[in-house]
Amino acid sequence: MRRVVFNQKGGVGKSSIACNLAAVSAVQGFRTLLIDLDAQANSTHYLTGLSGEEIPTGIAGFFRQTLSSGPFGRKGRVDIYETPFDNLHLVTATAELAELQPKLEQKHKINKLRKLLRELAEDYDHIYLDTPPALNFYTISALIAADRVLIPFDCDSFSRNALYSLLAELEELKEDHNPDLQVEGIVVNQFQPRATLPQQMLDELLAEGLPVLPVNLMSSVKMRESHHACMPLIYLDARHKLTRQFVELHDLLNRD
Q: Of 148, 149, 163, 250, which is most buried with the most CB atoms under 10 A?
């Protein structure tokens, strides 16, 4: 399983969802890898506590190798970081990704990640990909390489307006580049069940027939505590309601 967590709108909890689903996967005994493709490196910091020059080269090193090799050059390799958590490994992101992006686009390296993931899939049961909040080179590479995409949504008008175009773009990418890509659905994040607007918007999305998943992730200060501790919720507080929601979401997505 190779799952991309993606939305073009920032602030919807993309990295939090990717990391916490990967952590649940690891706790349940699956050999799990998270690949951070965002130059902001939020997932990298969340799972390691590292920042800046402390971070290993990770995925940027892999892409740098693809640029330096000729048509018959060596195969790109990637350094994998062992997190403090059993079964959970990470390919780190660094700010160098922003510098590499135009060079990778110019050299048409869009399929290199797909080849890498095919090799990594031999060693991992579940692979998660955290992407930038933009449909750029790294996100398109991830969507071409993956077999599933999960869309976080945070119940505001800006997110809703962007959602329709995002679904259309995913359908076009699927048709042109990756017919095996499955849009798993929309997961509502930072949900406030007692507020009128989020529930109204959720009901409207369901009425429109959009693929909204039946698990809503609540808004909770516990997530901020988790970020601060650099410890996904399943390790920080396994009994918390939000943790249980992540477990429920994980099991729903992986029931096949």
A: 149
Whether the predicted pLDDT of 176 surpasses 60: yes
Tokens of 252: 């729903």
Helices and strands (H, E) in the chain, number of each type = 11, 7
Give the tens place of pLDDT for each residue, 31-57: 999 999 999 999 999 999 999 999 999
Residue spans of beta strands (DSSP E) within the chain: 2-5, 32-36, 81-82, 88-91, 126-130, 148-153, 182-188
Strand-pairing partners, residue 136, are none
Question: 249 and 213 in contact (C-beta within 8 Å)?
Answer: yes
Contact 31/125 with Cβ under 8 angstroms? yes
Q: What is the pLDDT of residues 121-155, one digit of tens each?
A: 999 999 999 999 999 999 999 999 999 999 999 87
Model pTM above 0.90: yes
- Strand ordering across the sheet containing 32-36: 81-82, 88-91, 32-36, 126-130, 2-5, 148-153, 182-188
Q: What is the DSSP string of 47-99?
A: HH---GGGS--HHHHHHHHHHHS-TT-PPP----EE-SSTTEEEE---THHHH
Phi/psi of residue 75, nearest 5 degrees: -75, 135
To the nearest 10 degrees (0 to 180), the angle between helices 137-145 and 96-106 is: 70
- Say what the alpha-carbon torsion angle 45, 189, 125, 77 is, to the nearest 10 degrees: -40
Question: Number of C-alpha atoms within 13 angstroms, CB side, residue 249?
Answer: 30
pLDDT surpasses 80 at 70 = no
Joined together, the tokens standing for residue 105 give 């686009």
